[in-house]
Write a structure and sequence with these properties.
- With 102 residues, the protein is an alpha+beta fold.
- The chain contains three helices and three strands.
- It is globular and about 30 Å long.
């Protein structure tokens, strides 16, 4: 996947990235233990079908909590929260996370 920085936003494959996409993909690459490349996943692709395990989802969550200085409350500790990059993005947004750059 080609990535090009342009100001505070990142352009991925010729489109604007969702707010937390780069950091979510980074966490999936480092901690998701996926048999497929996280860079090749669509925003709504099912991460569990792509090989994410419940153990790996905890590691991804911890990495995102550390990156954004937030804590996932019990209400977000469900499979749907970690189902896709879009779902993770929505969860981070609901927690008031701000860009890792700023």
């Amino acid at each position: 996947m080609s990535e090009k920085l342009r100001g505070p936003e990142t352009v991925l494959e010729g489109r604007e990235a969702v707010k937390f996409e780069k950091e979510i993909r980074d966490a999936l690459i480092k901690y998701g233990s996926l048999p497929v490349g996280a860079a090749d996943l669509g925003l709504d692709d099912d991460l569990y079908q792509a090989g994410l395990t419940s153990h790996a989802s905890v590691n991804v969550m911890l990495a995102l909590e550390d990156t954004y200085h937030v804590e996932f409350p019990d209400t977000l500790l469900k499979k749907e929260t970690f189902q896709s990059i879009s779902a993770l993005n929505s969860a981070l947004d609901s927690l008031g996370a701000s860009s890792a750059e700023g």
